[in-house]
Write a structure and sequence with these properties.
44% of the residues lie in helices and 19% in strands. It is α/β, with parallel strands linked by helices and 270 residues long. It is rod-shaped, with a radius of gyration of 56 Å.
């Protein structure tokens, strides 16, 4: 029983001692593979990994910290990014900013798992790139566009001329413009504004037709009423204004015949 107790105390003492940094043995590992170190006792105040930088060779982490007298016991995890020999103590700093010169060396070595002939990546196989153009194709395309442009301009010009000829061959004559107003007067639906517009158009038309521009409006209207052709529509309008919706039908085509061949363009020329 006493022997068993003594053996247990010796085992606990050996475990509590951990692995002093002075007993640290060089370790090799492949590049890019994480390795762990447990129960590593390092003297002095608490340590932490140095910040990583762009060209860092080693990624070092402290996974656990436990107090060990006036020292600390650390669990470390590290990974090499470059081939070669390094010292883990160079990648540690103290939290209080004090010196780390009292740390023992913690040598590690990283080896490449690739052969000497595989240090550079394989070049991709030469392949045929898709043809997307070239100077010759640009010239061909430009020539086609140059040849098509005059044709497009010609078609646009012909269309405009066709539309223009259509307007000239079938202009709006005065009879067509007067007909809606005449029908409204016949049906008793002519407003005061439309009545004034109708009278103004008729008087203006006949003043020019009969060359009465030098006369006053009243004198011109009196002569228009005496004119056989001009008076027909005036008299019919007065009859509709007093008695809309006539019992006997009125031939609008006959009433509007004097205005049939008169276009707005011709009227403006007069």
């Amino acid at each position: 029983m006493k022997r068993l107790l003594i053996f247990s105390m010796i085992a606990l003492a050996s475990v509590s001692q951990g692995n002093p940094s002075g007993d640290f043995q060089p370790r090799k590992s492949p590049i890019g593979v994480y390795r762990d170190i447990q129960d590593l006792i390092l003297p002095g105040t608490e340590l932490e990994p140095k910040p990583l930088h762009q060209n860092t060779e080693i990624i070092l982490r402290i996974t656990a910290i436990r107090a060990h007298g006036d020292s600390f016991r650390y669990d470390l995890s590290y990974c090499g990014l470059q081939k070669g020999e390094f010292d883990l103590s160079d990648y540690l700093q103290r939290k209080d900013g004090s010196s780390t010169q009292d740390l023992a060396n913690l040598p590690v070595e990283f080896e490449s798992v690739l052969g000497a002939d595989r240090l550079q990546p394989n070049m991709p196989d030469a392949g045929k790139l898709p043809r997307i153009g070239g100077y010759k194709n640009i010239l061909i395309t430009a020539g086609i566009i140059w040849a098509i442009c005059p044709l497009i301009l010609l078609l646009v010009k012909r269309r405009k001329n066709k539309e223009s000829n259509s307007l000239v061959s079938n202009p709006e004559n005065m009879a067509d413009r007067l007909r809606p107003l005449i029908e409204a007067a016949r049906d008793g639906k002519l407003s005061i504004a439309e009545q004034a517009e109708l009278e103004r158009s008729l008087i203006g038309f006949w003043r020019e037709r009969l060359q009465l521009q030098s006369k006053t409006p009243l004198s011109a209207l009196a002569e228009i009423r005496q004119h056989e052709e001009a008076s027909q529509l005036f008299e019919q309008l007065e009859s509709w204004l007093h008695k809309p919706n006539p019992q006997s039908p009125v031939n609008l085509k006959t009433l509007l015949e004097p205005y049939r061949n008169v276009t707005k363009t011709n009227q403006e020329e007069h």
